[in-house]
Specification:
By secondary structure, the chain is mainly beta. The chain is built from twelve helices and 31 strands.
């Protein structure tokens, strides 16, 4: 019997013996040098804690790997990996390929039980160039709280050493264009792998494994490393939950180093959010004790409105909230607010309600709070003052208050309102350092000068200029795409547009009907395209479904970052019909169907997981009528994207964050104009699906 087969049989025998093992506590897995849940180079059957987001980087000889992984649900996870080879051109003259990008998916079929192991099925490099394409089934079982044993069966790269045959037939040739190689999955030679993980102490862990990866590409084909042994050993050190380090002896010839940054979007890295403490609700005297306090005669006083507004503005300014409008009767007040700093809409609502309780006369029982985004009301939150007073110190007060308030369409501004009173026009600007990443390891650092001029409610003039300070990107070879170079010339815009006018637009936002929002933007929409963009969105405040339509006319800009247009004078009309759906638990789906910047027609599907604290992680894929050969190296447009809010990391009150989109390959097909201020992302924050997940902060 082959020695590798004995490893697998030994594991199965050990798993059977667990029928007499004591009860165990289910554990989460550690990460391997590929940034996925596993041993050293091999995968395991475990999963990470739900929503875990990790950044991993490893070095094995001349090979560097950088991986972003996300546990999308308790069972499903995905990884985006960027791999580079140092001195590639000196090893193989004329070979321009120095890197590879790939996407992995894993699904945990079984969670670990008293007898059964955790079982995971995975796909590696499922849509890349096929250099690392492999599939596997991995099982892991814990023995007590220190020892874990893993065994599995791999195909593709993971079936290249110690094969036991091809149980599901031969493996077809690799597709060269990055499309999902479905016909290859679990085909060809299969080989077993196995390993152990032993926790020496609270900080140190030992790992050992038998690998089924022959490293044919790196050893036999390209001579990058020497694979002398299938055995790998190493130690890992983890002092806190967020960082883990590893050092390994790999394949009998190499030393490997790895670093993992492990983040939990559900829990703030900096703990609580700093900022001014909320003022307590000011309770009114009982009507029987002070009936004069409830007299409505104050409404007729000519200076009542300006005084109330001034006092409210003073209280709200401490929280970065501005008053867009104020209207009142003897029993009801409607205040329209602009939240410029607080990241949770529910907290902005709570701070506003508290301020109203201090300022409004006792006869005012109903508070109508209308958050305003880009000059238009997003929703109307109606709170009874008596509920606010009675529930402040109650157990589970957030849940009780949510049961009594209503969230409805914002409706029109009351005819008897006081108006904006000097809020418009308003000019703001900022100069901030900026990091622009084109890949996990490539990008530039610079300064971005941004400015906004709010002309009137709904009318915004804005723009930005960017100046590079340092960069490790290069111009590269000119694009050979047969399509119009609407994206593949991006490096030329980076190289020649320094400094560059990134954006200069005039936008008009409006509410043409109840539950309907509109946007028209004209100008230099992004660094590569200028023109006019129009959008309509139907989104009831309590609906999981939203429908939208967008129409754009654009011309491609010159690469110098100025006001001119490219030499081809390329212009195009694009448009999309969109459907948005909130599946619950933070999962948002979106489907767009229409015509893209290169003139191709198709559809984009995306799924994002949004957390109450502002974290957002998602994936997308676009398929159009452009062939895989014409599209480019990645076959079709797909990738992952994420947003990390600064509040989560720093604990300060801000609505800003760091966002990035990563693709396995670039192409001109499936490209959309990048317009700021699209409606769904802006409006949803103050609808029920945006307010409810973080409603507990209404009392903070």
């Amino acid at each position: 019997m082959h020695s590798s087969s004995r490893f697998l049989l030994a594991f199965l025998a050990a798993s059977t013996a667990l029928s007499v093992a004591p009860a165990f506590a289910e554990s989460t897995g550690t990460l391997n040098i590929n940034g996925a849940t596993g041993l050293i180079d091999m995968p395991s059957g475990e999963a990470q804690k739900d929503a875990t987001f990790s950044f991993s980087t490893s070095v094995v000889g001349p090979i560097s790997r950088t991986t972003l992984s996300f546990q999308m649900s308790e069972r499903l996870s995905g990884s985006f990996r960027f791999q580079t080879w140092r001195d590639w051109d000196t090893i193989i003259p004329g070979d321009a390929k120095e890197s590879d990008r790939s996407i992995d998916l894993r699904y945990q079929v079984l969670k670990e039980g008293r007898i059964r192991p955790a079982l995971t099925i995975g796909l590696q490099d499922m849509t890349g160039q096929g250099l690392f394409a492999s599939e596997y089934i991995a099982a892991t079982k814990s023995f007590g709280d220190r020892l874990k044993v893993t065994a599995g069966l791999g195909w593709g790269r993971l079936g290249s050493y110690g094969s036991i045959g091809a149980p599901f037939g031969n493996r077809p040739a690799v597709s060269p264009k990055g499309t999902p190689n479905v016909d290859q999955w679990f085909r060809g030679d299969a080989a077993p792998f196995a390993g152990v993980e032993y926790r020496i102490s609270d900080t140190w862990t030992f790992k050992g494994e038998y690998s089924s990866d022959a490293y044919v590409l790196e050893d036999d084909t390209r001579g990058l490393i020497e694979r002398d042994s299938p055995f790998n050993f190493g130690f890992e050190y983890q002092k806190n939950p967020n960082m883990r380090f590893g050092v390994y002896s790999l394949y009998g010839s190499e030393v490997g180093l790895t670093f993992h940054l492990i983040l939990d979007p559900k829990n703030r890295l900096a703990g609580g959010v700093t900022g001014p403490a909320p003022a307590p609700v000011k309770a009114r005297p009982a009507r029987s004790v002070d009936p004069e306090a409830y007299d409505a005669g104050w409404v007729t006083q000519p200076d009542a409105g300006p005084i109330l507004r001034k006092n409210l503005a003073k209280r709200l300014a401490a929280d970065g909230i501005a008053i867009e409008d104020l209207a009142y009767t003897a029993t009801t007040v409607q205040i329209r607010i602009r939240n410029g700093r607080i990241d949770a809409g529910s907290q902005a609502i709570g701070r506003t309600a508290r301020a109203l309780s201090h300022v409004m006369p006792a006869s005012v029982e109903v508070f109508e709070i209308v958050p305003v985004v880009n000059g238009i009301g997003a929703s109307k939150i109606t709170i009874r003052r008596s509920d606010l007073e009675g529930l402040e110190y109650s157990a589970d007060n957030a849940t009780l208050l949510r049961q009594r308030i209503t969230v409805t369409d914002a409706g029109p501004t009351p005819a008897y309102s006081l108006g904006d009173e000097g809020l418009y026009p308003k000019f703001t600007w900022s100069l901030r350092p900026t990091l622009r990443l084109s890949e996990p390891s490539k990008g530039d650092i610079g300064l971005r000068l941004s400015a906004n001029y709010d002309i009137a409610p709904g009318f915004v003039l804005s723009g930005s200029i960017y100046k590079q300070l340092a960069s490790n990107t290069d111009l590269g070879s000119p694009s050979t795409s047969p399509l119009q170079h609407v994206r593949t010339d991006g490096s030329r815009y980076t190289e020649f547009g320094d400094p560059a006018l990134e954006r200069l637009t005039l936008a008009w936002y409006a509410r043409p009907a109840p539950d309907v929002y509109s946007r028209v933007t004209v100008g230099y929409l992004e660094r590569m395209h200028a023109g006019v963009s129009g959008e309509l969105l139907w989104k009831p405040v309590d609906s999981q479904l939203a429908l939208g339509a967008e129409l754009n006319y654009t011309r491609q800009r010159d690469t110098d970052g100025g006001l001119g247009f490219n030499e081809y004078d390329y212009d195009v009309v694009t448009g999309y019909l969109s459907a948005y759906y909130d599946f619950g638990n933070g999962f948002l789906g979106q489907l767009d169907v229409g015509k893209y910047l290169a003139g191709d027609v198709g559809a984009t599907i995306s799924v994002d997981r949004v957390f109450a604290n502002g974290w957002k992680v998602g994936a997308f894929a676009t398929v159009t009528d452009v062939s895989a050969a014409d599209f480019g190296e990645s076959g079709f447009d797909k990738g992952i994207r994420f947003t990390i809010p600064f509040t989560w990391a720093l604990g300060t009150e801000t609505r800003r964050g760091f966002s990035m989109t990563l693709r396995p390959g670039s192409g001109d097909g499936g490209a959309r104009v990048d317009v700021a201020g699209r409606l769904y992302e802006s409006i949803r924050d103050y609808h029920t699906d945006g307010l409810d997940p973080d409603w507990g902060r209404v009392w903070r």
